[in-house]
Q: What sequence folds into this?
């Protein structure tokens, strides 16, 4: 269980380190760099959804003797639907939205921006929890190496997310320390969500294939709804595409080589 605890904290560490960039970067993030980082995060999440979640879901379905594509299809659709529901009921601000001005508006912007990234982190925490839960289940086909590869991949993509939230908050006049705390807190939902998912998943092993693809659907929703549109907005959209490619390839190589 010690290894599980370490694994669950790895993505949170990525968010914390990214948020800490507010202490080292004087100016706001260059728009081109932000596009690259958003695209990179999207690429990592796409690759993780395929190799760490959907493929294991299909493998587990085969072992359970059910139709191979059924859990993957049903879980994926439910995952997208779940995030669609959360996106509708939780007020949040898109990272590239035009922000209203004024003191009261700034306070609202802080809260809404944190909620936006927190919403992004919910499916990542679920994915991490489900994979680590699968690692604890005998004959699930999910190894410790694959679980830690996913955790590392999420940490890599959480690093730019932490910077993307803390830097704009500083630009709005928020103190560096407060911006760092907000950025860090936006990632706390991941280990909490992962722990809750592990507690639930270990008691309902038969539906693990559905849960794996559920997490994949939720992650892809974030990619399609938020990350890719934001990385493609305005000029130099090709930079976002390059980021997606780099993130996808790095996560794919990690998962195949070590998972």
A:
């Amino acid at each position: 269980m010690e290894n599980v605890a370490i694994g669950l904290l790895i993505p949170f560490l990525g968010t914390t380190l990214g948020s800490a960039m507010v202490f080292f970067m004087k100016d706001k993030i260059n728009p081109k760099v932000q596009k690259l980082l958003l695209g990179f995060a999207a690429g990592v999440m796409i690759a993780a959804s395929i190799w760490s979640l959907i493929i294991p879901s299909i493998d587990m379905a085969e072992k359970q003797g059910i139709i191979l594509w059924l859990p993957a299809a049903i879980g994926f659709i439910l995952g997208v639907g779940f995030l669609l529901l959360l996106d509708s009921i939780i007020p949040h601000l898109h990272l590239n939205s035009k922000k209203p001005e004024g003191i009261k508006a700034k306070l609202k912007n802080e809260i809404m921006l944190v909620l936006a990234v927190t919403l992004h982190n919910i499916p990542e925490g679920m994915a991490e929890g489900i994979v680590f839960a699968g690692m604890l289940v005998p004959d699930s086909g999910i190894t410790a190496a694959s679980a830690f590869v996913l955790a590392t991949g999420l940490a890599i993509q959480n690093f730019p997310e932490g910077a993307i939230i803390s830097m704009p908050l500083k630009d709005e006049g928020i103190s560096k320390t407060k911006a760092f705390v907000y950025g860090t807190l936006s990632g706390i939902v991941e280990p909490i969500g992962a722990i809750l998912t592990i507690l639930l998943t270990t008691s309902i092993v038969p539906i693990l294939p559905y849960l794996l693809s559920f997490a994949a659907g939720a992650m892809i929703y974030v990619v399609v709804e938020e990350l890719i549109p934001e990385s493609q907005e305005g000029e130099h959209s090709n930079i976002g595409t390059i980021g997606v490619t780099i993130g996808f390839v790095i996560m794919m190589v990690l998962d195949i080589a070590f998972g």
Summary: The two ends are 19 Å apart (CA to CA). The chain has one domain: 2-15+37-258.
